[in-house]
Amino acid sequence: MGRTEPSSSPTWAFIQAAQLQAIVIGAVMLREIHTRYGRDNLGFLWLIGEPFIFCMGVIGLWSLAKGPFDHGLPVLPFVMTGYLPLTLWRHVTGRAVQCFRSNASLLYHRQVKLMDLLIARVILEFYGALIAYLVIAFIFNAFGLYEFPKDWGLFYLGWFYFLLFSFAIGLIIGSLTEIYEWSEKLVGPFMYLMLPICGAFYMVDWLPYRFQEIAGYIPTVGAFEMIRGGQFGSSVRVHYSIVYETFVCLSLISIGMMMCRRVHRHLVIE
Fold first, then answer.
1. Sign of torsion, CA 97 52 129 68?
2. Is 108 a residue whose pLDDT tops 60?
3. Which domain holds residue 247?
4. How many domains does the chain have?
5. pLDDT digits (tens, 9 = 90+) for 13-38
6. Are 51 and 124 in contact (CB under 8 A)?
7. Contacts of 202 (CB under 8 A, 6+ apart)
8. What is the per-residue DSSP string for 174-236?
9. Is residue 4, in this structure, part of any structural domain at all?
10. What is the per-residue pLDDT across 73-85, written as a single tens digit (0 to 9) for each?
């Protein structure tokens, strides 16, 4: 008497809903893989191979231009900690353009939510960039050319904030390009403008003092600083604020979610 059945418990209902949504997102991810790369395994390998090949090219060019060290840091891990997170952000932003419209037919299934379409793409790009990083790391470590991160916790925390920021920007851009088609033309210039200031190619401590505080307001800079702080440990001085990063990411995600609600009124399901 007085016992609550597990199936009627709010906690149990939440767990079941979360499990169902995870299954739905997994199914959308598989569809995205098949659509983008075909049904053969070699196509799926390109998800990892593309950032791997480009990162190796950037490492080679940077090493030729800068030599093995830049500002006292080895070029190889510096480029890896800059280019691969940048690849994640660029790919998520690019894939977010009209993401909802191109997958609108999936919304006939009531279990599929609008945000599931973007979440699936973000997770795919995240796995691709992270696995590419680990593959490059293990290869160069085997030859004694790379040391693993000194602080794995801070390293992955930086990746986590990069994931949150990429998802937030993806939500906003995905919604904007559905509501205002002309906004798609602004995505490319926006990415090019962000490229030199995003933090991929410098550390805050290298900047003149008057510019360091300004750089700290760019959310990607804080994420890069965490990743490099985790990679190089006490050999570098990093500048970031977890409170600020969390506030910015959650604020942008909230804005993106509100914009997603507007998309429902503009989206035509065919």
1. negative
2. yes
3. 10-266
4. 1
5. 777 777 877 888 888 888 877 777 66
6. no
7. none
8. HHHHHH-GGGHHHHHHHHHHHTTTSSSS--GGGS-HHHHHHHTTSHHHHHHHHHHHHHHGGGS
9. no
10. 888 888 888 888 8
